[in-house]
Amino acid sequence: MSGHANHQRRWASDTVPGQKPVLGSSASSPGTESYSADEYVEVTIDLQDDDTIVLRSVEPAAKAINIEDGAGTETPSSASRSPTMKRSSSSKFRQFSQELKAEAVAKAKQFSQELKAELRRFSWSHGHASRVLSASSSAQNGGGGGNGIDSALAARALRKQRAQLDRTRSGAQKALRGLRFISNCKSTGVDGWNEVQSNFSKLAKDGFLHRADFAQCIGMRDSKEFALELFDALSRRRRLKIDKISREELFEFWSEVTDQSFDSRLQIFFDMVDKNEDGRITEEEVKEIIMLSASANKLSRLKEQAEEYAALIMEELDPERLGYIELWQLETLLLQKDTYLNYSQALSYTSQALSQNLQGLRKKNRIKRISTELVYYLQENWRRLWVLSLWILIMIGLFTWKFFQYKQRAAFKVMGYCLLTAKGAAETLKFNMALILLPVCRNTITWLRSTRLGFLVPFDDNINFHKTIAAAIVVGVILHAGNHLACDFPRLINASHDDYELYLSDFGKDQPTYWDLVKGAEGVTGILMVIFMAIAFTLATRWFRRNLIKLPKPFDRLTGFNAFWYSHHLFVIVYVLLIIHGVFLFLVHRWYKKTTWMYLAVPVLLYAGERTLRFFRSGFSTVRLVKVAIYPGNVLTLQMSKPPQFRYKSGQYMFVQCPAVSPFEWHPFSITSAPGDDYLSVHIRQLGDWTQELKRVFSEACEPPVAGKSGLLRADETTKKSLPKLLIDGPYGAPAQDYRNYDVLLLVGLGIGATPFISILKDLLNNIVKQEEQADSVSDFSRTSDHSVGSNDSTTPNRVSPKRKKLRTTNAYFYWVTREQGSFDWFKGVMNEVAELDQRGVIEMHNYLTSVYEEGDARSALITMVQALNHAKNGVDIVSGTRVRTHFARPNWKKVLSKLSSKHCNARIGVFYCGAPVLAKELNKLCYEFNQKGSTKFEFHKEHF
Fold it and tell me: What is the DSSP letter of 645?
């Protein structure tokens, strides 16, 4: 029979509203066949690459279906068929089945007669199998004895025959790549064996490798229990019960483990489960291997549910209820894994990707390539470049002005160019000490970034600019203080009496000593400023601020965020000393020429005003805590009332203070609630001393959650214990708040870095719901208007249809990468809500768990199969506990961006990232590369606090 493009098997729930299925689809699992001679049947079919339609199974219908011209019409009695059918309206299944159903319905009439003929032939030829399964079922339900077992065995034999046919017919070998025991391909060749031999030499005792050292020897140190089961399985295959092996036996083991044949690897995996060597796997053995795989992948919750998932596998692979499964059935499950997961995978854009990437394959000459790269660099960085250029030019101008001004002074005759350099550096220091305050005036920055000036100035780089100015201050201090102490002063005290009286009378009547110069107001204030600035600068470096340097007690208090925060407030003293230092000058005596206070006046007043505003605003913004929860991964969730005057945008952050922890410290956290929510929420991970103390304080006020509540510890308004007081200040601007300016969003969060994007997803979802409601109101208004056409009632006011504000953002892709399974509890409710309500498919979510071995590794193979099966059956991911499927290992970011560039040609894609700096560099580089290749433009943004 002729057909069309290949699509994997779909379920009965793949029903598209408004379309009629070709035939009733089987609600049973793949590989489970049950035939009957009833008048109405359900059929599972596959549309193959070779233009054939493969009839998978025929089953008695659980509901009435009218077969007419190849189209089935369900009766109302089908409403309560199964949980799978209940999910027929699910947006995920609807999206998945759209392509298949559209094509199948289009071809329905063309194939109807052939399908009917095939149905009659199939039903007659397998009538015996139908009776076998019916007899087996009745025997197990209360009679039949041995005859029932024989019938079940016959039915399984028939399934085995068809499974083998499936493998050869559909080219399933592509789906069977994987099941590797050694993940690193480079370690499976000669080099791999050489490394194993080296490990053997180190670990062997008396020429034998003991079983306990096998994992470390073959490179499975992190999966010792799994490696021991592998050792035992390989030993059982040789009918050996040994506790140690020689080098030759190790080579045999290694050869089998690294065998490139899938059948060989599948047999080893089967032998690991089949400990009694009877060629059968029972439910208890399945449970043991699930627990072993869960342990190897650090999935503690999966171990707790191992019995449930073992029963799920047995239900799928043992429909005859014989109590065991065989090797071919395990292979069938592996083969069908992609079928189960197919509906949640993105469509193929190969042809678009090819045409898009051909632009990048064309060779360019060196000059054109360099010019293209230069143009792109200027397009991406022109705002940073002009601001930095202006800043540098101002410093050069100030330095040059003072340099030549003091060259005309009499003191130059004695002190030389040391004096000119010191004074030029001093002028740049005044300017930079004033300028460095502006990037940390957060309220001003938040306001300015919303004005037209935000187009010209990169306000999102305010902290980077703050750090750059700090580096310039360090250079200025070295030039200024160094020239004075090491050059000017020695020349001054060693000058002859005549030269002193002629050129240096500004220093007093008597020629000073070196000590006189140091102990004066100018010297003391200058030295103290250098000391305080050195302390603040050192403790602000990444090594100290992030506790990367471990110091012995009590010096360990010099590391961490607290040390950075308190030491930075030494600059209050520095600015006071700077003003005093600028008043007591040796060579300047008129007040209007002492310009230090002129530089500092406006920035200091602005900064002081900001701090005063924060003080009073935080006092008015005392919030009432509504809910507190502590989740796995040391994450504290605080949900609080929203002050009436607190208005914010998704992606922004706010400062939080807890007086019970510290009455002075304020810390920034992304707002995870949406602007439309009636509460504020933040998620805080324990990464430093302040957050750890905050968790401890709230833990004392929390209690274990009651049934049905999330979190390890929980507290709310009904809790008897009083919750600590909390102050907030904000909101403040962040790069992510501008997400509405892009056609497509790529949101990437690492661990707790997902927090700024949760608010964006919720805001997008709220806007989607509002847009749908507006569309419904418009359609209702249109229908009302149609009914009122012809009315001449002039007293009726003209109705204006409600305005529909269209979202510019057409799609959002959220990638969340974490290494702890418990992390998914943080936003489980949000992910389920988005998956449930996003009927238009605007938001696509991807969870990645890096603690699990990548797909194809034997240690994660069974978990992948269970995950696929449970997701297809129940619509729930076993890892995250949400409707969003979890991927294993790390994403291939190049493939991610390639798919987006192919799917959204000519679109402007905003890439927003929050997490470790290493990945930020990789994503920024990939954005640059893809911008060179095609018409899709990626704009990278990284969160800064």
Answer: T
